[in-house]
Amino acid sequence: MFSCERDEKIFQTLPGQGWRVLIQWDPAPADTAEGFPAATVEPVIAWVTLKVPRVGTKCTYDDVVIAPLVRFPSGDELLILDSNKPSPRKVVYIAPGEEVNEQHVNQLRHGGYAAGVTLV
């Protein structure tokens, strides 16, 4: 089941097309003790186009974004990974056909840019 927590309005969904997301969940100590993973690789179920209400410093406005829809580790919820929404979790996107490697893990932990990105 998917619930719109902040009055998001979904316009369309497109297939995930083999994309995956490495997610650092930052679980609470009690959840870790129960076996909740610190990080997982989740397949993108769909790319979702949605309108999200935002609150700015002087006004409220609607933002249209394309974001990945993934499954929560317990398997009972779906989650939109909106990069503009404050969240304790960090993510790194894995392209179709690409294997998770040390660079992805380092990028997740320390930030930085993907291989092949040239800074000008």
Share of helix, binned: 10-25%
Order of neighbouring strands in the sheet with most strands: 1-4-5-6
Strand tally: 7
- The best one-word shape is globular
What's the gyration radius in Å?
A: 16 Å
- For the residues shown, what is the average pLDDT? 84
| Range of strand content | 35-45%
Broad structural category: mainly beta
Unreliable residue stretches: none
Name the helix and strand elements from N-terminus to C-terminus, one letter apiece.
EEHEEEEEH
Distance between the termini: 44 Å
- Which sheet architecture does the biggest sheet show? 4 strands, antiparallel
Number of helices, counting only DSSP H or I runs of 4 residues or more: 2
What descriptors fit this protein?
single chain, 120 residues, mainly beta, four-stranded antiparallel beta sheet, three-stranded antiparallel beta sheet, 2 helices, 7 strands, 39% strand
Structure, described:
The chain has two helices and seven strands, in the order ββαβββββα. The radius of gyration is 16 Å and the shape is globular. Strand 5 and strand 6 (78-80) form a beta hairpin. It has helices spanning 29-33, 102-110; strands at residues 9-15, 20-24, 39-43, 46-55, 60-71, 78-80, 90-94. The protein is mainly beta and 120 residues long. The protein is 12% helix and 39% strand. The longest helix has 9 residues, at 102-110.
